[in-house]
TrEMBL record:
Stored InterPro entries: Metallo-B-lactamas (IPR001279), NDM-1-like (IPR050855), RibonucZ/Hydroxyglut_hydro (IPR036866)
Domain annotation Metallo-beta-lactamase: ranges: 26-206
Name recorded for this polypeptide: Cyclase
Domain of life of the source: Bacteria
Organism: Halopolyspora algeriensis
Pfam families xrefs: Lactamase_B (PF00753)
């Protein structure tokens, strides 16, 4: 079973909520607390985990609103609970469109019996431009990512006074990134954009806290390697490349993702639409079958 979530105070008003080691559906979240309101950054994968997060974020009894960094279920499945408690939910337009057609649990890929109530909210406020959130003292900037990156609709939450950046899944720390639903080239451009914040602390989507963006070069090197590894041939030996990736990044969790990422990279470098189903099937073959989730 995963370890207990780590609730880590970053400042008097900012808290990170870390679900380590950060593998499948074990994402990070956090919150910013003002005198009368709390802004939650992301939720969790299951009803029980999201309720636990909301309890941790709400001891003052403040109303809680949420901003979702992207549409993947580990970050968004608790949004309905936020709305049911009277809070607003914010996401990019692309993420909102995907979330409201869910929940998406991908039963052919994952085995899980503990989802609980993860019905999406009926309404999500869409973020289409940089948005300032004033919490009565503390404040946050919700910023759309300039290009397609991890997904079609990524957001980050920036606290300039504190130097803290909630990156969502644009940053994975000690966990294999998943490039199944976005653009690897766009993701590389976005890493440059993230570096420009010069944040003192990144709260990654998965894995431990990242002081001073130390994970950015590692994620960049991996994504660039994916593109370079498949660029020179129409018919790469995906199995051999996956073996190489597992050796190069042997300390990263969820290595079966290499199989999917390489196929997405090949589609991108050779300019044809990626077949997500084929990439997911390659990942399942690498994992030895459907992936059981201990949530």
């Amino acid at each position: 079973m995963p370890a207990e979530p780590v609730v880590q105070s970053l400042t008097a008003n900012v808290t990170a909520y870390l679900q380590l080691p950060g593998g499948w559906f074990l994402n990070n979240a956090g919150w910013i607390t003002g005198p009368d309101r709390t802004l939650l950054v992301d939720t969790c994968a299951t009803e029980a985990r999201s309720r636990r997060l909301l309890k941790a974020a709400g001891p003052t009894g403040n109303p809680i609103s949420a901003v979702l960094t992207h549409a993947h279920g580990d970050h968004a499945h608790g949004a309905g609970l936020v709305a049911a408690a009277g809070g607003s939910v914010m996401a990019s337009a692309a993420a909102a469109a995907e979330i409201t057609t869910g929940p998406h649990t991908h039963p052919g890929v994952f085995e899980c019996s503990t989802w609980g109530d993860i019905a999406p909210p009926e309404h999500i406020d869409t973020i289409t431009a940089p948005t300032h959130i004033d919490l009565g003292g503390p404040s946050a900037e919700i910023l759309p990512v300039p290009t397609r990156a991890h997904t079609d609709g990524d957001l980050v939450v920036w606290l300039p006074r504190e130097g803290i950046l909630f990156t969502g899944d644009l940053v994975f720390a000690d966990v294999t990134p998943l490039a199944l639903h976005g653009s690897i080239t766009g993701w590389l451009e976005t890493l440059d954009w993230l570096a420009g914040f010069e944040a003192t602390t990144l709260v990654p989507g998965h894995g431990p806290l990242d002081p001073h963006g130390r994970s950015l070069p590692a994620v960049r090197a991996y994504l660039q390697w994916l593109l370079d590894a498949v660029d020179g041939t129409d018919h790469p030996d995906f199995d051999a490349l996956e073996t190489r990736a597992r050796a190069l990044w042997s300390d990263w969790h969820e290595p079966e993702r290499h199989a999917a990422n390489l196929r997405v990279a090949h589609a991108e470098t050779h300019r044809y639409p990626p077949d997500v189903a084929v990439a997911a099937q390659a990942m399942l073959q690498s994992a030895g079958g459907p992936i059981p989730l201990a949530l």
